[in-house]
Write a structure and sequence with these properties.
558 residues; alpha+beta; 8% strand; globular
Length: 558
């Protein structure tokens, strides 16, 4: 087995063995065997004698295995749950249940981590610090505290050493992803290496609290003039990569309808305000909270909505927002042909796409919901059906759109808890229309014209020089044409195996011929009147021939 980082592999050998053991424990020994991990890491076959949890469904076993393997693998499951077109729906549902919880750090460890990162004693920084965390996860935990000036704050502490664990697990995951692509061909359509690379990027951002602090400030600027939304302050004097200090939010969880009513807060109004907050983030700003489950949304005593945990955000470029607007407009106007065109323009369709079949599937989806009252449409169902079509036609859905879809579905689920009659799609319609119209605004047309003129100018001025350079290289014979043949590696491997077997067979034949000559010459030490060298040669050739025959039979290619 060839791994990409031998040094890392040696250092992480214990962790590799732990991962393999857990996979076998939950009944995934076949995957381990196909990746040749047992041989590579000298893991005894005795682990296969452990009783796997096969009485549970495969989806439950995958979730439990990821939870047992720790924070990196939990994050992997969460990323997969945002890709319903990649994995079966029952696995999506199960991975959505992943709980990122952990035992809290001992108080002295938490205090030491704060003092180490802030560079001063806890009593010189805070008037009061509660060593008992209000929340504890595998990456961090949160404490209540009070600044010296009396300001109530919360402190988010990163678990000591967690970055080292994340880095080691990411290296292992990437090795496994490479092995999957090499040894399990059916996994290639899921792009495991790309998935791990994306996971590494998002997780490393999440454990950098400076990144989260900047996200909070960005949201605060965008909602500075909206009295219905409350974004906490970041106290940068008490914030580092591993410690984040911000305003304490005293509020009610947004899904606690009874508590909201008891506090005199109208859930319907909260729902409407929350919807407008979401639509502004997604359709106007292109910068949205990407982890909007009810535990991250609170309502203050005055009825203001207060999101928390800004480590995971979604960002859409102006081009992606335009593509989204074009796609949504085509769907609203019941134009499947334009939907296909939007996909083609975005460059997400495979080269061998059957556009007619794709248009038929999209038309069926749009028609199914076209005449249904908007209040009866479930975003989660539409999302599942759309991603099923994407999977069937191998459409490469960009990660930003998957995060966008997941966030939108989650927001809608929260809204329906607050107000079952809330028409999510109808409420979003004005924002979608404005987003679509921005493409034709005078400012946008002026910008597009400037870009076009600049590109034309660059082409006119650079073309003669580039043409001359090309002609010069052509005359000097420096132009090379590259030819790439797909599947050639597999052919070379098969030819290599065949040539090895042929060479082996020739060696066996040579031994047999040599032994026969020894028998004919009748020289040397004899047993029962037969030359010992001749007999030994026949036995050795028989042994090698049997081994070759077994190898050919096992390969299944006679």
């Amino acid at each position: 087995m060839n791994l990409t980082s031998p040094g890392k592999t040696i250092r992480n050998l214990k962790r590799y063995r732990e991962i393999i053991s857990v996979l076998i424990k939950y009944g995934f020994g076949e995957v381990v065997a196909r990746l040749n991990l047992l041989t590579a890491y000298r893991i005894g076959r005795r682990v296969f004698r452990r009783e796997p949890h096969i009485q549970l469904s495969y989806a439950v076993r995958i979730r439990q295995a990821l939870e047992e393997l720790g924070p990196t693998f939990i994050k992997l499951g969460q990323v997969l749950s945002m890709r319903p077109f990649l994995i079966p729906s029952e696995l999506v549902i199960e991975l959505s249940k992943l709980q990122d919880q952990a035992a809290p750090l001992p108080p002295e460890v938490a205090i030491k981590a704060i003092e180490l990162n802030l560079g001063q004693k806890i009593e010189d920084t805070f008037r009061d610090f509660n060593p008992i965390p209000i929340a504890s996860a595998s990456l961090s935990q949160v404490h209540y505290a009070t600044l010296l000036d009396g300001t109530s704050v919360v402190i988010k502490i990163q678990r000591p050493g967690i970055k080292r664990v994340i880095d080691a697990d990411m290296a292992i995951l990437r090795d496994i992803a490479l092995l999957l692509e090499k040894h399990v061909p059916e996994s290639r359509q899921y792009e495991p290496v790309g998935l791990v690379d994306e996971l590494a990027k998002t997780t490393r951002r999440e454990i950098n609290f400076l990144y989260e602090g900047r996200n909070i400030e960005a949201f605060a600027r965008k909602f500075a003039d909206d009295p219905r939304i409350y974004i906490p302050r970041v106290f940068w004097s008490y914030t580092t990569r591993n410690v984040l200090t911000m305003d304490r939010i005293e509020g009610i969880k947004i899904s606690d309808i009874a508590a909201l009513k008891e506090a005199g807060i109208d859930p319907v109004e909260v729902c409407r305000n929350g919807g407008e907050m979401v639509f502004k983030m997604i359709f106007e700003d292109g910068f949205f909270h990407a982890d909007p489950h009810p535990g991250n949304l609170f309502v203050t005593a005055s009825g203001r909505i207060a999101p928390v945990d800004y480590g995971m955000v979604g960002i859409m470029s102006s081009t992606q927002m335009e593509q989204t607007a074009e796609l949504l407009s085509a769907i609203v106007n019941n134009d499947p042909k334009l939907v296909v065109y939007s996909f083609k323009k975005a460059g997400v369709l495979p080269e061998d796409i059957n556009e007619t079949a794709l248009e038929t599937d999209i038309n069926e989806l749009i028609t199914r919901y076209h005449r249904i009252p908007l209040a009866q449409i479930d975003m989660a169902t539409i999302s599942d059906e759309f991603f099923e079509i994407a999977h069937r036609h191998n459409i490469r859905v960009q990660s930003e759109f998957m995060v966008f879809g997941k966030a939108l579905v989650t927001y809608e689920e929260v809204a329906r808890q607050l107000d079952p009659e809330y028409d999510f799609i109808k409420s979003a319609e004005p924002y979608v229309r404005r987003m679509a119209m921005r493409r034709f605004s005078a400012k946008r047309l002026k910008r597009d014209a400037q870009i076009a003129i600049t590109e034309l100018h660059d082409f006119i001025t650079k073309f003669p020089e580039e043409l001359g350079e090309f002609t010069s290289k052509l005359n000097k014979g420096k132009i090379k044409v590259g030819l790439e043949v797909h599947g050639l590696d597999k052919l070379i491997l098969e030819l290599d195996k065949s040539s090895n077997r042929l060479s082996f067979a020739l060696i066996i034949a040579a031994i047999i011929v040599g032994s026969s000559m020894m028998m004919t010459l009748n020289v040397g030490l004899k047993i029962y009147g037969l030359p010992v060298l001749g007999l030994f040669g026949y036995l050795f050739a028989g042994f090698l021939g049997a081994g070759l025959a077994i190898s050919i039979l096992r390969s299944g290619k006679l």
